[in-house]
Design brief:
- It is a single chain.
- This protein has a single domain (2-276), classed as Farnesyl Diphosphate Synthase, CATH 1.10.600.
- The chain is built from 14 helices and no strands.
- It has helices at residues 2-10, 13-29, 36-60, 62-68, 81-99, 105-125, 131-151, 158-178, 180-185, 191-195, 197-214, 217-220, 226-249, 253-276.
């Protein structure tokens, strides 16, 4: 049982939960609520692909995780690197097979791009300053494009894609500051290691301000309603203001770890804001 749980942990259950909620939120944005069998199928595909990407990430980061994430299954010796890679291949195949009944050219393009980014991120992009952050943020935002496509109207996923992209981009850069020790040990070239913590802090603050103002645009453009704005301000914008304040005072790994956790939790409030935006 411990081994089974370790393989489940490789998939990052919290990320799977976030993806599942994103699929439900996207369903509510449709003019007509999708059939539940389509929603369940979409969930299986997203969970399989997300789990595969995370397993590949742990396979590639085995050395770094000994320093930055010693609690993960591979550093703990619960799963071998070969086992993680095999699990990733199985999950990719599962997701691809699940996609056959709902196959369209549009969906195929989205899934092929997702597989390409998921597999190349850990192998090539993760160690590169900013580019790796952009790639992983694109992957996370693509959940909305995939969901909107499988539900029948990809245009409904464009706005939440950009919101998710911006939010995750900030969190990924904060995580880079948190992980500097392990990344430096293995020769990574992340943003804080290449340009310094001070420059990275300014980039985080600038991107956060852009996101805060940009996130109001869907309300101004009448894409989402007043409940979106209220939830956004009190549930998302206030925590982002705190992130700017806190990282200005303290850029230590421990504080960035705390801020990363706050941002991850705040993502769920962002999803709630998008859900309420229809009302």
């Amino acid at each position: 049982m411990k081994k089974v749980l370790a393989y489940i942990r490789l998939m990052r259950p919290l990320n799977l939960l976030q993806g599942g909620i994103a699929l439900l939120v996207a369903a509510t944005l449709m003019d007509r609520f999708p059939a539940w069998n389509i929603i369940l199928l979409a969930t299986g595909i997203v969970w399989s692909y997300t789990g595969a990407g995370n397993a590949i990430n742990d396979y590639c980061d085995a050395g770094i995780d000994k320093i930055n994430r010693p609690e993960r299954p591979i550093p703990q010796g619960l799963v071998s690197r070969k086992g993680a890679l095999t699990w990733a291949v199985c999950l990719f195949l599962t997701g691809s097979l699940l996609a056959i009944p709902v196959f369209t050219l549009e969906l195929m393009i989205i899934l092929l791009l997702a597989v390409l980014l998921l597999t190349t991120y850990s192998l090539f992009f993760k160690m590169r300053p900013l580019l790796g952050n952009v790639v992983v943020s694109t992957i996370l935002g693509m959940t909305f494009l995939f969901a909107a496509s499988i539900y029948g109207d990809i245009s409904k996923g464009v706005t939440p894609f950009f919101l998710a992209f911006g939010f995750n981009l900030i969190r990924e850069i904060v995580k880079d500051v948190q992980d500097m020790k392990g990344d430096q040990a293995l020769g990574a070239r992340t943003l804080p290691l290449k340009y310094g913590v001070e420059v990275t802090r300014k980039i985080i603050n600038t991107l956060t301000l852009i996101l805060m103002f940009g996130a109001i645009a869907p309300y101004i453009l009448h894409i989402y309603g007043k409940f979106y704005l209220l939830t956004l301000i009190f549930g998302v914008e206030f925590p982002l203001v705190y992130v700017i304040y806190s990282i200005r005072k303290d850029c230590s790994a421990s504080n960035c770890s705390r801020l990363s956790a706050i941002l991850k939790s705040d993502i769920f409030l962002g999803l709630l804001a998008i859900f309420l935006g229809k009302f």
